[in-house]
Amino acid sequence: MKPRLLKFGMVAAITLLPLQSAWAEAPLKLVLQITVDQLRGDLIDRNIDHFGDGGFRYLLANGIYYTNAHHRHANTETIVGHTTLATGTDPAVHGMVANLWFDRKSGKPFYNVQDPDYPLLANSGVDQSSEIDPTQRAATSDGRSPVSILSSTLSDEISIANAGASKIFGVSVKDRGAISMAGHSGTAYWFSKSEGRFVTSSYYMDAYPGWVDNWNDSGHVLAYADQAWELKDGVETYRFGEMDDVEWETDFPGFGRSFPHPYDQSGVKYYTTLLTLSPAGDELTAGFAKELVDREQIGQDSIPDYLSVSFSSTDYVGHIFGPSSLEAEDNLRRLDQTISDLLQHVDARVGLENTLVVLSADHGAAEVPGYLNSLGIPASYFSFDDIDKQPAAKALTAEFGAAEELIESFSQPYVYLDETVLEAKGLEKSDVAGKLASELQKFQGIAFAISSEDLASAAVSKTSVSDAILANFHSERSGDIYVVFEPHWFVGDMDGLTVASHHGSPWEYDTHVPIVFSRPGMKSQRISDRVETVDLAPTVAAYLKIKAPSGSRGKVLRNVLEAQ
């Protein structure tokens, strides 16, 4: 009889010990990669005393926990981090330099996984065409695919090694969280806020399997209607229990700043958006993933399969309320239970002894400026709206004209110059970019501004920040100037919504994430040596005895191999 997930904590540690040899010989049937969007590296330890035995505690008790892992690229955004975890390489190689970049050929902004050649599928399997929730740019109907990812992924390499026989899937609320991990060879499903269901695109299939339509039509999403997100435990047990309603949190319409947060379907335009701003988004993601395991027969033969589950609610909650908030604290307690439920399901269907679980995050998070200010720590928001009013802009205006006129767009972290205006004025882009970068660096709140020409010619001093910016530099996709804000400064905007907290910097709070490798029989270890997220994919590849992704630049973490 296979050991099940009933044995946790100290009991688990004692009970599992005699079985290590048997588990070491168990065939590996599944790689389960869990990515928690915006799980900053300190948040597991900060909250672990209030986690149960079956989620994070279970993974740490049966695995190797790298407590000092970091992304080494500068733009710590969702698609950049997910694709780095998937490929084991930098955005300079895999090409996903930002959630959004300006496409010079089309003259339009380009969303990272958009692809008009592969439209979304509606419930009937035809092209998606309904109106999209404008609070989420990622949910546009112009098609989705992984074509813009320029390196193979870990999931691709698993498929290659097994002659295409491995089942490869990625699931997330976010399209970019699912597509990046499923790679080019897998199948991705994500949650459409406009449709209130999990969807995919014609890149992956012509019509949905019956089980997807059945799950979507079974009332899982509507089950939250007229309910509310309430505290899981007594308010006195929370670190931030006395900070339920503070002025620096975002008061999202219909949701409020204090518990309970209602999922009011009537009279609220974006009911499904409210679900993703709470633990409900992760619960729906896990529920769909569990159904996928059952219906697609994941891990049911001798050929290893791959399933990525990317949980997005921590990110949305962090943006709206901040990582140090009562909401963020409660969300992590509920996520811990959601992960526990998922692991129990995998154990029942596949066997955790046959499963390698890998957990990490796409980026960390900045603290809300208002929260830091309340503690006497300087922090603020930055706005490009008043760029011409800054004293440092006078020299630029005198030489080239108004800065606003010269800039096509600012799409974090890049400034793109308007080439049409430059041509009309007879200006050289390299001259303008260099001068503008020099002037921008004088603005309050900006630490560094570096032109792409200087990056391409290596005309920058070698520092940890410049190395991170170079790791993010792709000559065709990166903008003309890379902007790094001072620590605790950022643009408080997410897809047109003013938010409390953000991420995207090369500073410690944004780069620091956890990395955990877990399988029954692994000796529990905490390793504080600094490692990098590019190490994850080649380490799993070495564990599976397959080749690393094509662009891989990471090293193999030997502790994981030695723990087999």
Automatic annotation (TrEMBL):
Keywords: Hydrolase, Metal-binding, Phosphoprotein, Signal
Gene3D superfamilies: 3.30.1360.150, Alkaline Phosphatase, subunit A
Signal sequence segment: 1-24
InterPro entries tied to this protein: Alkaline_phosphatase_core_sf, Alkaline_phosphatase_prok, Phosphodiest/P_Trfase
Protein EC: 3.1.3.1
Binding site for substrate: 99, 174-176
One Pfam family, short name: Phosphodiest
Biased composition (Polar residues): 125-144
Sample GO molecular function, one term: alkaline phosphatase activity
Location of the region described as Disordered in the Swiss-Prot/TrEMBL record: 124-144
Active site positions, chain numbering: 78
PANTHER family linked: BIS(5'-ADENOSYL)-TRIPHOSPHATASE (PTHR10151:SF120), ECTONUCLEOTIDE PYROPHOSPHATASE/PHOSPHODIESTERASE (PTHR10151)
Name of the protein in its database record: Alkaline phosphatase
Gene encoding the protein: phoK_1
